[in-house]
Amino acid sequence: MQELLQWVEACEADAIDEEDVIRFDHGDRTFAIYRTAKGSYYATDGYCTHEKFHLSEGLVMGTIIECPKHNGRFDYTTGAAKRTPVCVDLRTYPVKLEHNKVFIQI
Fold it and tell me: Where would I find the Rieske domain in this sequence (predicted)?
């Protein structure tokens, strides 16, 4: 059976500073919502794949998020693991902007 996808309002667009990340909780899931220096938005699972630490507390450098626990890195635009100790990619989610609100498809 195929899972039903839905667009969920995550935040106001200006709630995220450029080159930053915020946490978004929906139901029993946690997501990380990112904004690039050019104003594009991205979303990933909210926990590091290494030890389930909140990525929203990490450091954003360009399109890289660094986990605050062990400094593993991911490219948040693709979810690709970029530096050990992380070796499992992050799941990413489609994002759209409507009426100054950020929506993610989950």
Answer: 7-104
For residue 57, the number of C-alpha atoms closer than 13 Å in the C-beta half-sphere is 10
- Lookup: tokens for 46: 């909210």
- Kindly report the backbone phi and psi dihedral angles of residue 55, in degrees, each rounded to the nearest multiple of 5, phi listed first: -70, -25
Q: DSSP characters for 58-75?
A: SEEETTEEE-TTT--EEE
| Model confidence at 2: pLDDT above 60 | no
The CATH number that applies at residue 92 is 2.102.10.10
Is 32 domain-assigned? Answer: yes
In a domain, 2, yes or no: no
Residue 3 has pLDDT above 90, yes or no: no
Tally of domains in the chain: 1
Q: Where is pLDDT greater, at 51 or 66? A: 66
What tokens does 58 get? 């990490």
Best CA proximity match to 10, nearest among 78, 91, 87, 106: 106
